[in-house]
Design a protein that fits this description.
The chain has 332 residues and is of the alpha/beta class. Among the domains are: 9-117, Aminopeptidase; 253-329, no CATH class. 36% of the residues lie in helices and 15% in strands. It is built from 11 helices and 11 strands. The strands form 3 sheets. Strands 1, 2, 3, 4 and 5 form a 5-stranded mixed β-sheet that branches. Strands 7-6-8 form a 3-stranded parallel β-sheet. A hairpin with a 2-residue loop joins strand 2 (48-55) and strand 3 (58-62). Helix 7 (162-179) packs antiparallel against helix 8 (186-197). The protein is globular and about 70 Å long.
Length: 332
């Protein structure tokens, strides 16, 4: 399989060279968007930038961008999808891209237009002046902002005001959730947080971790059992899967745990040995959600093992443990 990895800031120039060569104008083909929105992973294949992404419950590839032969890279992606056991889907395609795919792989793909994913194209002058009936709603929105915040000002974001800006983002998120509880603004919140706090995660670790990471501080016994609800991570090195399982069972909350491994024996040992409501192999623990599991709206997540009241039989004595296998799936 192709080794897709999250984009790093160090790859900005390389990515932009491929994006410029591809000539794409959709918002998907923009380094800032690809970097900040966390469900994208990238690889450079046959002289092309290739993005592997997830939307909803489907995985797909953005149509590759680059100056080399398209058939070679498309063939590589078709083979990658086969190895992953998923349908080969391409997104961000233009009419010309569809015509090329028909020519290179006749009869192998179906095509449909997703109107909800179309981009709006504006002239810069129109957005600057907002003249005419077409832009009435945007003028109203701007006027409401001016009335609500008459003393607003524009200032550059500096390191000194980052905490205040981060708090403003959290306030914005809370307000949006109150005003539109049916909408999910988490991805916008996460992208803004990444832009403001990139590489600002506090790392704590044992001696083995600190030998690898120079900016890691020493972890205490209390750190391993603490749920920070912040950008703090505690790490420990272990000599075996058994030691890892013992460590997890000692400090975890019995909620959700995950292992990233290519060793099937280790994966099965982890699934069987970890005491948690949900145990994952090569997938994010963020999927522990009633809606994601097909139970309807999320009500709560229980880490208890017994749900019974009154007379009890075998059914009432039965507990649940969900074992989930993936191939790198994440949830924003």
């Amino acid at each position: 399989m192709i080794d897709f990895q999250p984009l790093s800031l160090d790859q900005q120039s390389l990515c932009r060279a491929h994006l410029a060569c591809g000539g794409k104008r959709g918002c998907e083909y923009n380094f800032t968007n690809l970097y900040l929105w966390g469900r994208q992973k990238a690889a450079f294949v046959e002289g092309h930038l290739v993005i592997f992404s997830q939307y909803g419950r489907q995985s797909f590839y953005l149509f590759p961008v680059g100056c080399n032969d398209k058939k070679a890279v498309l063939s590589a992606l078709i083979e990658d999808a086969k190895q992953r056991g998923i349908a080969c889907r391409f997104g961000g395609m233009t009419h010309d891209d569809c015509a090329l795919l028909v020519k290179l792989f006749p009869g192998q793909f179906r095509y449909h237009f997703d109107r909800d994913s179309f981009d709006y194209v504006y002239a810069i002058e129109d957005l600057a002046e907002l003249k005419g009936k077409k832009y009435q709603k945007k003028r109203n929105h701007l006027n409401r902002f001016r009335q609500s915040f008459p003393d607003h000002s524009f200032v550059p974001i500096t390191k000194d005001i980052l905490p205040a800006v981060s708090q403003m983002v959290e306030n914005w998120y809370a307000l949006r959730q109150q005003e539109q509880p049916h909408m999910d603004f988490h991805m916008e919140r996460a992208a803004l947080a990444k832009a403001l706090r990139d590489k600002n995660v506090e790392m704590r670790g044992d001696e083995g971790i600190r030998e690898i990471l120079n900016d890691c501080i020493e972890a205490t016994e209390q750190d391993y059992g603490t749920e920070y609800l912040d950008y703090i991570v505690s790490m420990r090195t272990v000599d075996s899967v058994e030691e890892a399982i013992d460590h997890i069972n000692r400090y975890n909350t019995r909620h959700s745990e995950s292992i990233i491994t290519g060793n099937e024996s280790h994966a099965q040992q982890f699934l069987n040995g970890v005491d948690a409501a949900c145990v994952y192999v090569n997938a994010s623990t963020r999927f522990t959600d009633g809606f994601e599991f097909g139970f309807g709206a999320e009500i709560g997540i229980s880490t208890q093992k017994l749900h019974a009241r009154g007379p009890m039989g075998l059914k009432e004595l039965t507990s649940y443990k969900y074992m989930v296998r993936g191939c790198g799936q994440i949830r924003g």
